[in-house]
Design goal:
- Two copies of one chain form a homodimer.
- Chain A has 330 residues and is an alpha/beta fold.
- In chain A, strands 3-2-4-1-5-6-7 form a seven-stranded parallel sheet, with helices on both faces.
- In chain A, helix 12 links the parallel strand 6 and strand 7.
- Chain A has three domains: 53 residues, Single alpha-helices involved in coiled-coils or other helix-helix interfaces, CATH 1.20.5.170; 214 residues, Rossmann fold (3-Layer(aba) Sandwich); 50 residues, no CATH class.
- Chain A is built from 16 helices and seven strands.
- Helix content of chain A is 57%, strand content 11%.
- The relative contact order of chain A is 0.11.
- Chains A and B meet through helix 4, helix 8, helix 14, helix 15 and helix 16 of A and helix 4, helix 8, helix 14, helix 15 and helix 16 of B.
């Protein structure tokens, strides 16, 4: 059994992933998430080899406040995609809060019990113990490997608080915001900027005695969405109702996704947006790389503490301290 | 006349600033804002020499949506501070939007006509043509020189949109949020995070037929402020009404500032917060410095374009491209 766990040659991972081998896919993702330099460089080689086989998917970001039913929605929507649309669906997450609580979203796979055992689904929780920048990079790389493994629908879940939606938005084609019936209360928890990012608002839990409330919320959001400036994609954001419990509304949502894709493929936004995202990611990685390099330098670490004390004590200006540090290094 | 404009020896600037010479203070700030390396290094020397004379002030951040009457408030509050409290007051601004519109806040000094001609006031608009990080650094350095010149009250204005409040919050002791009467409408334009940062909410334009509305808004905000988690400073945020037009409420606001200062000096938060801010600033400057150095390298600039194209074309992974770039440089 232990031989299975050891590191294999790169080509075995690559061939495995391209052949749709989920175990090797998982192991490669573990390399991506690993802090060990040898795992890191192996992961980079695997990604490099898989690169020509990536991109053939629709990438969907899904957000919403805690309690809106994201997991139940993804279970229902993912199952619909696999059964009715024959789509291979990967579910990833960006959740920087998991580093604190260790309660990563998607971490509790039992919340998606049907989806997690489906052979056409692949569920991977948010990597733990990372900054948002780190989590986003790892999720993006994981997405590429999933695409290479033949997953043509990528769902990236995030929590509806903080900066993580911006990270998800920067790596998906389409951004879906889940809300609850009861528009007014809901808007307080969701930042205006997130509503502006949405391509589709789905009022979840449209079932039981909430149907009327949900329908009226849908109308309100439809109106509100028209007040935002037109999107570069040329797409007019929509609002729909759905019930993850009753598995209703899934076909409508999928149809809207197809409409969106058709429109944005035709007007070249789909391709241009991905290129722009790739470019931004490249520059984000440069920033991360520079910091990583700077703070790894052992001499700098020692110097940093001494000089930080001087700065805080007001004995040297922050700017001068930084010039001195950088001069020494460069 | 032209000899006045030429660069003087460092000690002349320093002595001038410490002696309260506003012309030399202005010129030194112009050096801070200059892009020329010789001005930059001169500015750093001046700051360094002034450093022992900084910090003896209360630093107050002031924010609010456009239209809330920030300039009129600062005119009224600044005049009150100078006349009634004999405080020397400097008014600075952080407005990264000014780089686009060239219509910097505070740029139009006529909006503060009484204050701008008062010899105990010093007004300096937001530096233009900079990123938020750059603007924030320059404003912070300007604040230090103002303190060295004897200004013991620093008001830093910002617009109530985007990330600039976080920048202001990171360099002040006390954060004042101006709102208009009519609580519900107002909250939509102001992000929840900004309300959470506030030490004081002042309902401006409490005059004419808006007095009742303002009083009821004050009550609502007082209640809302109690719902937020307790602040590290130990201070309970307050809500008051004021009228910049009628110059009412200024003494109350000043009294609350004194209460705040007394409390936080006693529990050491005042000093500890400044130390923490200085530390954070130091690390922000390291980030800025690393980027600056990286993108200034001419070889890198050429290489960057070539490699960016490869990344966007999917010929090389972003991570591998970045490692190659950094390896070459380091």
């Amino acid at each position: 059994m232990t031989t299975d766990k050891k590191i294999r040659p790169i080509h075995e991972y690559v061939e495995g992933i391209l052949g749709g081998n989920r175990i090797l896919l998982s192991r490669a993702i573990t390399m991506i998430e690993s802090k060990k330099p040898e795992h890191q460089s192996l992961a980079q080689e695997i990604i490099e080899k898989c690169l020509p086989h990536t991109g053939h998917s629709i990438r969907i970001g899904i957000t919403g406040s805690p309690g809106v039913g994201k997991s139940t929605f993804i279970e229902a929507f993912g199952t619909y995609l696999i059964r009715e649309q024959k789509r291979k669906t990967a579910v990833l997450a960006i959740d920087p809060t998991s580093q604190k609580s260790h309660g990563s979203i998607l971490g509790d796979k039992t919340r998606m019990d049907k989806l997690s055992i489906n052979e056409n689904a692949f569920i991977r929780p948010s990597p733990a113990g990372e900054s948002l920048g780190g989590v986003a990079t790892k999720t993006r790389e994981t997405m590429l490997l999933c695409e290479a493994a033949g997953f043509n629908t990528i769902l990236i879940e995030t929590v509806g608080v903080g900066q993580s939606e911006i990270a998800v938005h920067s790596m998906v084609d389409f951004f879906l915001l889940l809300l609850l019936p009861g528009a007014g209360d809901e808007l307080q928890g969701i930042k205006r900027g997130i509503v502006e990012m949405a391509d589709l608002i789905a009022i979840n839990k449209t079932d039981g005695d909430q149907i009327d409330l949900a329908k009226s919320a849908r109308k309100d959001y439809s109106m509100a969405l028209h007040l935002f400036p037109e999107k570069e994609s040329g797409w007019t954001p929509k609002a729909v109702t759905c019930s993850s419990q009753e598995k209703e509304g899934m076909a409508d949502i999928w149809q809207l996704l197809l409409d969106f894709q058709q429109l944005t493929l035709a007007n070249d936004w789909f391709e241009n947006n991905r290129k722009q995202q790739l470019k931004n990611w490249f520059y984000d990685l440069i920033d991360l790389g520079l910091k990583h390099w700077f703070y790894r330098d052992v001499e700098i670490k020692q110097e940093l503490r001494t000089i930080e004390k001087k700065v805080v004590a007001g004995k040297i200006s922050a700017a001068k301290a930084v010039s001195q540090l950088l001069e020494k290094l460069i």
